Amino acid sequence: MDDEEARARLLDAAEALFYAEGIQAVGMDRIRTASGVPLKRLYRLFPAKDTLVAAYLERRDARWIGGLREAVAGAEEPVPAVFDWLARWFSEPDFRGCAFLNAYGELGTGPAAVLDVVRRHKSDLRALLGTLTDSPALADQLLILAEGATVVAALTPGPEPALRAREAALRLLEAGAPPNG
């Protein structure tokens, strides 16, 4: 196996284990076993667990934001499409909330590389929502609705939190741009 395949296997294993069980609960040896990549190669590709966590989150960010962008781009009404997409995600059998908030909740303000990925993900989400409205204040409110729905769904999985947030987003749109927008 070449480095590219080893890296993909490691990231697949890391994502499955970190998302299901938590970052701190999973050691590098478990990732090595799950991936089938020798420990020496694992540490050559990812010299520290922090670098593996950051790479896992970066790859997840690209896929997650990309999926949401596709859903919005193909929608007649993009704002409700955000919440419809979230409802489908919240209904997936392995849904465990936001991987980025989970990582932040476990690791707090360190390590810096992981915190940077978490912040960049939230900034990218805010930027995407900003493309759906001319009002920065409304984009901020949509972000709060999306994030709040995700947190609620982590506690009670299923589409309901996204559908309630969708209703609130539609009311905000009907009301027009908020003050300071």
TrEMBL record:
HTH tetR-type domain: which residues? Answer: 4-64
DNA-binding region, residue range(s): 27-46
Pfam families for the chain = TetR_N
The cross-references to InterPro entries, in alphabetical order and at most eight, read: Homeodomain-like_sf, HTH_TetR, Tet_transcr_reg_TetR-rel_C_sf
The answer on whether this UniProt entry bears the keyword Chaperone reads no
At the top level of its lineage, which domain of life is listed? Bacteria
Q: Which UniProt keywords apply?
A: DNA-binding, Transcription, Transcription regulation
Q: What is this protein called?
A: TetR/AcrR family transcriptional regulator
Q: What is the lineage of its organism?
A: Bacteria, Bacillati, Actinomycetota, Actinomycetes, Kitasatosporales
